[in-house]
Amino acid sequence: MALLLTAGLLTAITSARACPAGEGYPSPQSHSCVQCGAGTWSAAGSTECTKCRAGTFSGVSGAPGPETCQQCEVGRWSSQEGAPGPGSCHPCPAGRWGDRPGLSDARQCTQCRKGTWSSAQGATSPDTCIPCQAGTWSQVRGAISHTQCQACPAGRWTDAEGTASMSGCIRCDPGTYSTDVGATSQGVCRRCPAGTWSRLAGSPSNATCQACSPGSWSSTTGASSQNSCQRCPKGTWSSANGASTASACNACGVGLYQPAVGQASQSNCIECEPGSYNNGHGAARCTRCPKGTWGGSRGATSCNVCPDGFWTYIKGSLHADDCTRCNRGNNCNPGATARVTVEIEGLDFAALAESQRQALKMAYAAKIAATCNLPSNESVWDLLGGNGTITITDGMVEAFLAVPQGSYANVLARALYAPAFKEEMMQTTDAVPGVARASAIGPVVLKLEKFERQVITATVTTTTSTVTTATSTETTAASVETTPTRAHDLRGSTTGSWRYESHANRGLSLLWCQILLAGVMAAYVVN
Hints:
Blueprint: H1 2-17, E1 23-24, E2 34-35, E3 40-41, E4 50-51, E5 56-57, E6 70-71, E7 76-77, E8 90-91, E9 96-97, E10 110-111, E11 116-117, E12 130-131, E13 136-137, E14 150-151, E15 156-157, E16 170-171, E17 176-177, E18 190-191, E19 196-197, E20 210-211, E21 216-217, E22 230-231, E23 236-237, E24 250-251, E25 256-257, E26 270-271, E27 276-277, E28 287-288, E29 293-294, E30 304-305, E31 310-311, E32 324-325, E33 337-345, H2 354-371, E34 380-381, E35 391-393, E36 396-402, H3 409-417, H4 419-431, E37 440-448, E38 453-464, E39 480-491, H5 504-526
Helix pairs in contact: 2-4
């Protein structure tokens, strides 16, 4: 019984402490129920008023449940618990936006991405984030001002908006540079000038454009490799730094040569060795003194012709006593024949019209005859024996002439080896209409040589068919086909004209022999 009384007493005490919905004790020490204030609520039987959670608010007093707690609208947030009204909801700060209601912290507002910014507060979508303009970039999240967008540095550019890092600024290509900051197009990238090069991308100034080294040049602008610098050719040199034209390569002078390319100093031009010479500019090698001449000094521009009636047996002779009296092996006396060769540089004979080639041949023959003081142009002939003309092969003029009576080949050599002859050959080339000027006249050589006229002959090829014989009928078939083919022979003659030798009679006799043999074989088979 005592237990029942005790339980009833406790139940009565507990019931006395419970509050109706919307009410609660104002403090733990109080046992009187009062109405819950705005921003709070209480369910029936509770003695405590519960605060609306952060991100919500309520202006209702005596609220019986949490459904009266309203969420802060999108673009706003509140960290206050038990907020009594919407004034506790703060707008998302600049550089952020919120598209969900009931945010409880400013950090729950999403930051504008890198490369964008926003000064607006309470933004509700990423559309309020403004991209950094072309030519700028930003790696800051939640940027609040366009001033946080940095300009692309010199040597870079971008035409895109909203660039999120400096790597998004495109570097100028190798061989170019730009001093502009915040560039928006590749057009600001200027080419390194001719005579320079740069392999560096994104160069901020022309200080990175490196000059072609002495002994080389380049006419290319915007070069990205030292390979664009062409080395001066053999026979030339250049001390210029950053040369932009081939004219910077200076030719080694007469009596000098240089066999290597890319030379940076005139001191690299080498003197011709004794027994050789060079009378032109820009030579890659010196020419050995031809037979009939000698040279004993370095840096020679010409060779000494042996005295009349004397000749040397080898090229590159070094001493005057190498000249020996002419004999059958070296016939330099009147009536002897000699081959003249003249190298014409830079003239494409094959590209000339036939009329131009013939005009040049006759003009060259006339010039050689006049220089050697020969009786007429007919005193010069080509390799086939045609008078008043010369032969041209791969840029080489070749002709024969005879030593006039009362003279020696030495006299002709002195005339042909004189510098005036080369200049006159240049003028002769210029005088033919439509023919471009030759770049230079190369070595001139007079060689003692017995003239052998080239003769065209014919060779007859004979083909005989098979002889067919039958037992019932005597059938004999024979055919002969002759095909003439031309061949060039050398016949030792200095005065005769071309000859044509025919083998027709011999071919005809062979034909009759073949027919006769076929008939005998056919008769033997029948019998």
